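To close the chapter, one final illustration. This time we ask the reader to focus less on the individual chains and more on the assembly as a whole: which components sit near each other, and how the overall shape emerges from the parts.
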Amino acid sequence: MTLQMVPYMLTFLLLVAGLYAIVAKRNLVKVIVGILILDYAANLLLVLTGYRTPPAGQAPVAPILTGGAAQAQELAATAVDPIPQALVLTSIVIGLSVAALVVALAVRLYEKYGTFDTELMRNLKG
Amino acid sequence: MDPILILLLAMLGFMLIGSLIAIETRDLLSSVICVGAVGFGTSLVFLLLGAPDLAITQVVVEILVLVVLVRVVITRRDETHATSRSTLPVGVVLLALGVMAAVVFGALAGGPEEGALRLRPFGDPLMSAEVPAAQLAPAGRPDLAPAGTCSASVGGAFLEQGLAQSEASRGTGAANYVMGVLLDYRAYDTLGEATVIFVAVIGAYAVLRKVGRSRHAGNESDR
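The assembled structure is written out below.
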């Protein structure tokens, strides 16, 4: 286990924390919190795989041309991977939609049962 | 040691602690605010990893989620969680999740040296690996292969040719390569994303609307 794998490991721990909240918590708000954390961790893992260490002493290079077409060759050799970023950008917005829908369901359940606790919603017990 | 790696590890540790507090705290409002801190931490990490577009989007999304969640939590009193225990024994859940995470991470990080699923070390993306360009030739037409080597990932090829607008390269000409992918190569994907947003909005409206429920007024259990 080298130091280079530690960011992945921490992100995995974040993912497991989100899964834990989804599986083990009774409160619907906690479950929503778990879904959000899982979402962040998955996005982060994808972006981490596309990171490229910049040349020594420089900041990471975003895949954006700032110096005109003459800079393109230099960018191709140093910039981070644009593909995971493009996919994660979609994923973030979809995560927002999922969160909005889940919050709406939780609010409706609260209206009906007067609690966020899934154990107290007798009619929901399977 | 790379200062960016140190900063990244510090931010990831902050996010991990924030998420643990968010999951375990008794007060729902504190929980929601902690998850907001985790979200803004994510945004900072994106900025650190050279993804400014993602950082901006994450901040906007985070503010929206935080406002909605605080609005939901702050007006609804729910004291039951203070005394309730978890549905499943915490030890069992943690053991199962720990085994799962260890197996998945072990399979990703400790796989064969040239495996398709192998997680490459941080800072060394698949993009920087070079393969013989002959591998990319269409089936049965090795004579069409370009000479030399090329990047093993489509990201590398895109960075090399994405700007050029000629018959051969099929570049987009966009200076921001992420947006080039999103709005040109994957435009249908972005259209589908907009569809998902609107479907979610319609779904949330259908769940929360007051009009239309009165039809079932006689059926109290349905309210």
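The radius of gyration of chain A is 20 Å. The mean pLDDT of chain A is 87. With these observations in hand, you are ready for the problems at the end of the chapter.
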